[in-house]
Amino acid sequence: MDYSLLWLDWRPKKRLPAYTRCVCGLPATRQGKAALRELISGLQAMGAAPEIRRSPSTGIPAVTLMERPGSDEQVSLRRSGDGIEIAGTGRGLIYGVFHFLRRLSMGEEFPEWTSAPAYAIRMLDHWDNADGSIERGYAGQSFFFRNGKPVCTERTRDYARLMASCGLNGCCINNVNVRGNARKLLTGSYQRELRRIALCFAEYGVSLWLSVSFSAPLELGGLDTADPLDEGVRQWWKETCLRLFTSIPNLAGFLVKADSEGRPGPHSYGRSQAEGANMLADAVRPYGGKILWRCFVYNCTQDWRDTKTDRARAQCDHFAPLDGQFRENVYLQLKNGPVDFQVREPVSPLLGHLERTASLMEFQIAQEYTGQQRHVCYLIPMFREILDFRFHSRPEKDRVSERISAVCAVSNTGDDGNWTGHDLAAANWFGFGLISWNPAADPAEIAREWSILTFGDDPAVTETVTDILLRSREVYEKYTSPLGIGWMCVPGTHYGPSPEGYEFDRWGTYLRANHREIGVERGPEGTGFTEQYSPPLAAMYRDIAACPEELLLFFHRLPYDYRMKDGRTLLQRIYDDHFAGYEEAAAMADAWDKLEGRLDGEVFRRVQERFRMQVRSAAEWRDVVNTWLYRLTMQPDEKGRRIYP
Ligand code: GCV
Predict the structure, then answer these.
(1) Please, what is the Cα angle at 171 between 247 and 414, to 5 degrees?
(2) Is residue 265 a contact partner of residue 254, using CB atoms and an 8 Å limit?
(3) % of the chain at pLDDT higher than 90
(4) Residues lining ligand 1, Cβ inside 6 A
(5) Are 36 and 27 in contact (CB under 8 A)?
(6) What global pTM score does this model have?
(7) For the domain 121-291+323-443, what is the CATH superfamily, name and number?
(8) Strands 22-24, 145-146: parallel, antiparallel or unpaired by DSSP?
(9) What pLDDT is recorded for position 102?
């Protein structure tokens, strides 16, 4: 069985509705034609041998594709006589056909559906480097770059199909840290390759985006400045965009990481983030281009003696005052939390301040801090929580999902046979697609559907896989870093425990634990981060008793004998979570073992191997964190369990 097809591995069905015996349609666009091909091959894979007609005939039940002119992504599936009609523009038909095939695969006979995506931009950001490596990549090498150059292969097409099949429509192929040959993507050097990728994407309605370096005029243009207000710089970008956008169809715009972790940006020239972003926005505007401007601007060399600077505050401090100053084609791209993709963080308060600026929320399905695709960690429930979060600052359109204008996720793919390293990690890719189309989608339903499409419909498999996925984030959270504190991982690699690693690291993200207390105080007496939220939320977060317990150590510095709501001390709660997290990880591994013989042997063994790694790592996390706390506090576990003193 070819698992590289992931959820598109349509399986033969015992019974198919009569209308699958005929397919009608004469789409004119590239996407419409691709939709027709997908429909025919999908039905054939399920066991139908459909007759192909150009137009419907009365009395013959059929699946009919009706292509409308335009470029929107709306689609409708409705019953038509004894058949089904799928109607939309070329792009709409692609989504409609994949949706239809998925429903049919799930055993639904007349799946009626009228839908349009919640956001016009739904994309994956790849942190792929030109040399083929992937920053924070856990599934092999890049399939977009080889030997320093972009490549378009069979896999590019497979990728575009997978993207479209779960509703995604954009891809930034290169790392936001633009280094080495990736800089040359802006020159004429790789235009042919980029054009091929763009055309391949276009067939499935996926737009191409490129990450660019703010100092490209210096690096490539021989200029002596990249000052966004310099006429020569502005002219250089305009000429570069003219060449690029006119030779690469389907190029949607640029993604920019500026003034962040050592990357160049407008601050070097005394200019604001808005001045930097607007200069690029002006250069891409003639081609309908957009600028995705990242807000990940913070001081990454904070001195440990400086207790006022707080990384969590940085996004708001830098960007909230600039609301309204950005061009219409600039989207501020902010990570979902105020710090950096930890397993639990509050929602970034910046979004609550953006009233007149388009924004794009950045999630991360690359499991950088969530087990690196060696541990299972299904992130869609967390994304749903975030999208549902309310800022309590306006009567309407107050939720994250209503405030943002677009979504993206850092990709978890590579050239591994199964695309994502851990087979179960593909659920995050599929789920991210579905939830970006519809932010109200149910993560449990998505997990179930993904499992059936990927592994078949054996109820024992579906139940076990769905249950593992739905529990996985809490389990991971329990044996790693407690109560929102984050950052107990090994600096640099971000895998495995090192509770004091960052405490003595030049990146300066501090936990500030000592023998009495743990946590950073972020209330008004501390860094004041809580005050970046609207008054009701600020009041809740600053009040220790009202603060949601799962975020207690994100917001507060507390003594180890602080009493949690259930009466346990803070320390005991942390010990308990670490013991329980390990046990639960082991239980997930056992549950997987019971599936032996029920799914493809190779996949079974691959996942089993990952579970073994996860359980070993969970034990290490438990022992290292508990021992560290025990040695700091000399307070034993109340239940007398073994802690390595
Ligand atoms: C692409 C974190 C990661 C970096 C990443 C950065 C970012 O710091 O560890 O690898 O760089 O975030 O999002 O820009």
Answers:
(1) 120
(2) no
(3) 94
(4) 127, 135-136, 176-177, 257, 261, 296, 340
(5) yes
(6) 0.98
(7) Glycosidases (3.20.20.80)
(8) unpaired
(9) 97
Give the ligand 1 atom nearest the CA of 260. 14
Give buried/exposed letters for 197-236 (b at 16+ CB in 10 A, else e): bbbbbbbbbbbbbbbbbbbbbbbbbebeebbbebeebbeb
Q: Does pLDDT of 645 surpass 80?
A: no
Q: 347 and 390 in contact (C-beta within 8 Å)? A: no
Catalytic choice (340, 345, 521, 576): 340
- Is there a catalytic annotation at residue 368? yes
Helix, strand and coil percent figures for the chain, each rounded to 5: 40, 15, 45
The answer to whether the 121-291+323-443 and 482-633 domains have the same CATH topology is no
Amino acid in the structure at residue 273: Q
Ligand 1: nearest atom to the Cα of 335? 13
Domain 482-633 fold is Alpha-d-glucuronidase, C-terminal Domain (3.90.1330)
What the block records as the tokens of 226 is 């990249």
Q: How far is CA 181 from CA 13, 149, 323, 460, 480, in A?
A: 48, 7, 35, 49, 37
Stretch 542-546: mean pLDDT, rounded? 98
55 falls in which pLDDT band (50, 70, 90)?
confident
367 with 412: CB under 8 angstroms?
A: yes
Provide the pLDDT for residue 1: 44
Out of 125, 136, 256, mutate this one to test ligand 1's pocket (max ligand atoms within 8 Å of CB): namely 136
At residue 56, the pLDDT reads 82
pLDDT single digits (tens) 255-308: 999 999 999 999 999 999 999 999 999 999 999 999 999 999 998 888 888 888
Of 85, 203, 227, 368, the active-site residue reads 368
Q: Please state the rounded mean pLDDT for residues 110-137.
A: 97
Query: What CATH topology corresponds to 3-115?
Result: Chitobiase; domain 2 (3.30.379)
Segment 309-334 shows an average pLDDT of 97
Distance CA 482, CA 628 (A): 13
Query: Count of alpha carbons within 13 Å of 309, Cβ hemisphere only?
Result: 15
> What CA–CA distances, in Å, run from 410 to 122, 174, 413, 614?
12, 11, 9, 22
Determine the Cα–Cα distance for residues 395 and 534; give it in Å rounded to an integer: 13
Question: Domain spans of the chain?
Answer: 3-115, 121-291+323-443, 482-633
- Radius of gyration for the alpha carbons in the chain, expressed in angstroms and rounded: 25
Kindly indicate the confidence band of residue 57, based on its pLDDT and cuts at 50, 70 and 90: confident
Can you point out the beta strands (E) in 486-602? 517-518, 558-559
Q: Determine the Cα–Cα distance for residues 94 and 314; give it in Å rounded to an integer.
A: 41
DSSP, res 346: P
For the chain, give the mean pLDDT: 96
Inform me whether the pLDDT recorded for 3 exceeds 70. no
